[in-house]
Amino acid sequence: MSADAPPIASTATEPDRYCVVGHPVAHSRSPWIHARFAALTGEPVAYGAQLLPLEGFADGIRRLADAGFRGCNVTVPFKFDAIALCDRLTDRARIAGAANTLRFEDGEIHGDNTDGAGLVADIERNLGLPIAGREVLLVGAGGAAAGVLGPLLAARPGRLIVTNRTHMRAVELVAAHQPLALLSETELVAQAQPALEGDFDIVINATASSLAGGMVPVPSSVLRPGALALDMMYGPAAQVFLAWALRHGAQPRDGLGMLVEQAAEAFLYWRGVRPPSAQVLGELRAHLAATAA
Q: Is position 276 annotated as part of the catalytic site?
């Protein structure tokens, strides 16, 4: 499930241009993260943010490619749209059915999905929590959940339950990933939210409920004492979920570490260089704490 071979880094005097695209996108921390990656690795990268209209994603991506951009990250709500534009896909993007990282090369669009690798790296490397053998609950069945399910299965949890407000979407997502679950020897099941049973070592919120300021979509009974409760959102959007986790004896974790780690995977895909993600995550948390003070 590794990315295909990245291009050789440019030797041009002008930096290569990349960006994050989404709707909305002004909140994104990706420009700050990639600026630090570029500074720490010495790679000639200039990175910004581009707001694309909800009905104009494909045209917007083609304009970026025509303007000489080397690639882009794709955030909500365009990850399913992005994969339809790709001429080539990595295995992990193909399995996810969604792309969050595009590379423009020789007139083609190459697509990858770095979300799941970023999530697993944050849990296993940054937190030091092995996923193998654990009981995992994934809440959601949209683009965010699709992007992380394959790498989560590759980490070989003992059991992984997918639940979603629209149950059939969870069923479809699970069905598409059953071959990988068999390879990983993981029990993979879709459960309807009203009938959700059991408790878990790791609970991951991959829904948009946090963005909308909504309530946590699962009962507190899903949390084992000391369980990891991770919201893939970060900042104010994650606060309701994090407070809920803390109130019920779980270990709360926002999506900032996942964001940095998936960005590092994208940087590697583009440049062939792995940036020091743990250092940048520490710097970003300190930066956000200072600006909030």
A: no
